[in-house]
Write a structure and sequence with these properties.
The complex is a heterodimer of chains A (337) and B (396). Chain A has 337 residues and is an alpha/beta fold. Chain A folds into 2 domains: 204 residues, 3-Layer(aba) Sandwich (D-Maltodextrin-Binding Protein, domain 2), CATH 3.40.190; 96 residues, D-Maltodextrin-Binding Protein, domain 2, CATH 3.40.190.10. Chain A has 14 helices and 14 strands. In chain A, a hairpin with a 5-residue loop joins β2 and β3. Chain A is globular, with a radius of gyration of 22 Å. By secondary structure, chain B is α+β, with helices and mostly antiparallel strands. In chain B, the strands form 3 sheets. Chain B has a 4-stranded antiparallel sheet. A two-stranded antiparallel sheet of chain B has the order 4-5. Chain B has a two-stranded antiparallel sheet with strand order 6-7. In chain B, a hairpin with a 2-residue loop joins β6 and β7. The longest helix of chain B is centred in the N-terminal third of the chain and has 34 residues. Classes of the chains: A alpha/beta (337), B alpha+beta (396). At the A-B interface, α1, α4, α5, α6 and β10 of A face α2 and α11 of B.
């Protein structure tokens, strides 16, 4: 009898995790908050501010999802994850959505059992060196020691780039971004490589930020975006359309400040986005005013960008590829109708 | 009456379900079956869930091209090598740092353990301070200390410390000339092997002669002579078929020669100094466990202090020392997995780190990594048990 009880308990324990995976949207509604996987501190993307509140464009995606699903952008709990831990945390159901400057690649989309919900920052990998090295191009880096973060696409791009240009390098691979930066800063490596936005963000942390420069070469495509588990289409739709709603709002000129006036707009596109017309929210399984909540509480994509990484912030990044499609960039929302 | 005799002649066998032997067997089979079923269920459940979530499984990935590079490789490895090869590189790196760590931890531990017993107040208290500090600070912090605090203070490649213009120390590592073997070099290691064989034969002969006649033979000095003399002779005969490849500063770093990376130094230092503090205590316990009467008895037989320690005290102390020493060796080997914190490319960093991230096959990779540590532990354990048996008291 005892044995059967033990067996049953074990069986129940193993199936429990399966049940949690079933419907993330209902799950999130049930528990009343979104569990969001973020970085361990990358300025502009996901970083705690002086008061300990998480801020950044990746954080804004999570807040927007909470606003769309629960009507309150504050109902998010954050789990800081290393590059190495992030996918396991998502796969095992520890987080509902991973918004952690994660590159969309084929292997991750297929073999890892994940789905990318879109791209909230188009990036590319670059190199940072000390100015006094006198290096002007990445092609002069033959024989250099390179500090890099483990478990990133960066690690592979780096090898590919040096191999393609028949150059040699010594990799020094760390598990935490902070250790990579510390090792580079102390001179263990000649070069620090990561996404260009990451270089800009980490440069602020160096002892003498001005003694370093970012080389002009961009050696890879790094589309960064939020990730969810494979096989949960409803939740994928939720995250995907939340992201689109932010981009669409910018395109339509709807901001967190004017969203209430915009409710009275005669433009059918604006009316559909804000839930005055059409069944968008209902079809997604969300409330009618889901996109209104997103824009009202978090802002549109452009607002989020300028607030966290734009030219007026310490990162000082241009919109560049992340401008709207009509301004020559790549940000393009599917029609909300 | 008749009934009574019948019982006395053949006591009724209890039915099978009441026979304690069968009962015991029955329950053992039942429990074992239960465990196997549970295991099968867990494996099946995992497979089904992985499949349902669309996560790849199987061991085919080991033959896929790795595409990343590794900073320290003991066997040939390039970006074009397979994940299986990367696994081998990581495994060898783990074994290298464990072997270095065990070697130095043992020597340092014995010295400090004996120093702790010294009658000299200063020496014994210095040893005590060492032990108390090192064994009471978490190992990870000690690794960070060596790596980020100590080894960060060496100069950049352009201002390297150099010795005879062939050894260079800088923040990228310790560079030394690498030997280049030329034709005919094989004779030297062959001479070395022949020398070792000769020494073993000599030692056996000397031992047998001492048993027979009581005469001693200076085995140690003769052996040393053979060990150095034979290879040297071979080298002279073949005309020193060995040249050196010197490291030189080219561009960013030194090129050529051999390099010991700072990550290896920091990890080996931290592991050996930390474990040495435990070994020192074990050695002290072992030596104190041999009663002083043994020493006195040896002296009264006319043995000098040296042979007394070597032939009487240490063999008995070793019996107490070896079993806990084995545990320390196992700890050291397993602690080497902290390498990941300071970029030493051991199996955890390379295989359970980069390869895991690139393939996403957590179940397989973590299982393999666990199996590796289990196997290495069992091997160390088996060797130490063999050695323990050899050292054990032989009762006549």
């Amino acid at each position: 009898m005892k044995l059967t009880k033990v067996l049953l308990a074990a069986a129940a324990a193993t199936t429990l995790s399966t049940a949690a995976v079933a419907g993330t949207l209902d799950d999130v509604r049930g528990k009343g908050f979104v569990q969001c996987g973020v970085s361990q501190g990358l300025a502009g993307f996901s970083n705690p501010d002086e008061q300990g509140n998480w801020t950044g464009i990746d954080v804004d995606v999570c807040r927007a999802v909470a606003a769309a699903v629960l009507g309150d952008a504050g109902k998010v709990k954050f789990t800081p994850l290393s590059a190495k831990e992030r996918f396991t945390a998502l796969q095992s159901g520890e987080v509902d959505v991973l918004s952690r400057n994660t590159t969309w690649t084929l292997v991750r989309d297929s073999a890892l059992g994940l789905n990318f919900a879109g791209v909230n920052y188009y990036d590319g990998q670059g190199f940072m060196v000390r100015k006094d090295l006198g290096v002007k191009s990445a092609l002069e880096l033959d024989g250099a020691s390179v500090c890099v973060n483990i478990g990133t696409t960066t690690e592979l791009n780096l090898s590919d780039y040096f191999r393609a240009n028949s150059m040699k390098f010594n990799p020094v691979v760390f598990e935490k971004a902070d250790e990579v930066v510390a090792a580079y800063d102390s001179g263990r490596c000649d070069v620090y490589t990561t996404d260009q936005s990451g270089l800009a963000a980490q440069r602020i942390k160096l002892k003498e930020p001005n003694a370093h420069m970012i080389l002009p070469e961009v050696i890879s495509k790094e589309p960064l975006g939020p990730v969810v588990r494979h096989g949960d289409d409803k939740w994928l739709d939720t995250v995907k359309w939340t992201l689109y709603a932010m981009v669409e709002a910018e395109e339509l000129g709807v901001t967190s400040k004017n969203v209430d006036q915009m409710k009275g707009s005669s433009s059918p596109n604006v009316r559909r986005l804000l839930g005055i017309e059409g069944d968008g929210g209902k079809n997604l399984g969300l409330s009618v005013d889901w996109a209104y909540n997103v824009v009202k509480q978090v802002g549109n994509y452009g607002e989020s960008f300028e607030r966290h990484v734009g030219v007026k912030t310490s990162l000082g990044l241009e919109r560049g590829q992340n401008a709207l499609w009509k301004d020559g960039g790549l940000q393009y929302a599917m029609p909300v109708r | 009456m008749a009934v009574e005799t019948k019982i006395a002649v053949a006591p009724a066998k209890p039915p099978v379900w009441n026979d304690p032997r069968y009962r015991a067997l029955f329950f053992q089979v039942l429990v074992l079956g239960g465990v196997i079923l549970l295991g099968a269920y867990l494996v099946g459940n995992t497979m089904a869930n992985l499949e349902r979530q669309g996560i790849a499984s199987g061991f085919g990935f080991l033959e896929t091209t790795a595409g990343f590079s590794i900073s320290q490789t003991l066997v040939e490895y390039s970006e074009e090598s397979s994940y299986g090869r990367a696994f081998l590189v990581g495994l060898l790196n783990t074994m290298l740092v464990s072997a270095i760590g065990i070697f130095f931890a043992t020597i340092l531990g014995f010295i400090i353990g004996v120093a702790r017993l010294s009658r000299n107040w200063l020496i014994s208290n210095l040893a005590a301070v060492y032990i108390e500090i090192l064994r009471n600070i978490p190992l990870l912090l000690q690794i960070f200390f060596w790596y980020f605090a100590v080894l960060r203070n060496v100069p950049s490649p352009k201002n390297s410390h150099s010795l005879f213009d062939s050894f260079f120390l800088n923040i990228r590592g310790l560079y030394s000339p690498a030997p280049v073997f030329e034709a005919g070099f094989w004779l030297i290691p062959a001479a070395l092997v022949a020398g070792i064989v000769g020494i073993v034969v000599l030692a056996r002969w000397a031992h047998a002669r001492q048993e027979r006649t009581g005469e001693q033979f200076p085995v140690f000095w003769t052996s040393l002579g053979i060990l150095i003399g034979l290879p040297l002779l071979a080298a002279v005969v073949t005309g020193f078929p060995l040249s050196w490849n010197y490291p030189e500063l080219k561009g960013f770093n030194f090129v050529g020669g051999m390099v010991v990376i700072p990550e290896l130094v920091a990890l080996a230092l931290a592991l050996s100094t930390y474990t040495a503090s435990f070994i020192a205590e074990i050695v002290r316990a072992g030596i104190t466990a041999v009663s002083h009467g043994q020493t006195e008895a040896a002296y009264s037989l006319g043995l000098r202090p040296g042979p007394t320690l070597r032939l009487v005290v240490i063999p008995q102390a070793l019996r107490v020392i070896i079993p806990p020493l084995t545990s320390q060796y196992l700890n050291l080997m397993k602690n080497s997995s902290l390498a990941a914190a300071i970029a030493y490319p051991d199996i955890v960093l390379v295989f359970a780190g980069t390869v895991l991230m690139q393939t996403g096959q957590a179940v397989e990779i973590i299982s393999i990594t666990m199996a590796v540590y289990l196997t290495l532990s069992l091997l160390i354990s088996a060797f130490m048990n063999w050695y323990n048996k050899k050292m054990a008291l032989v009762e006549r």
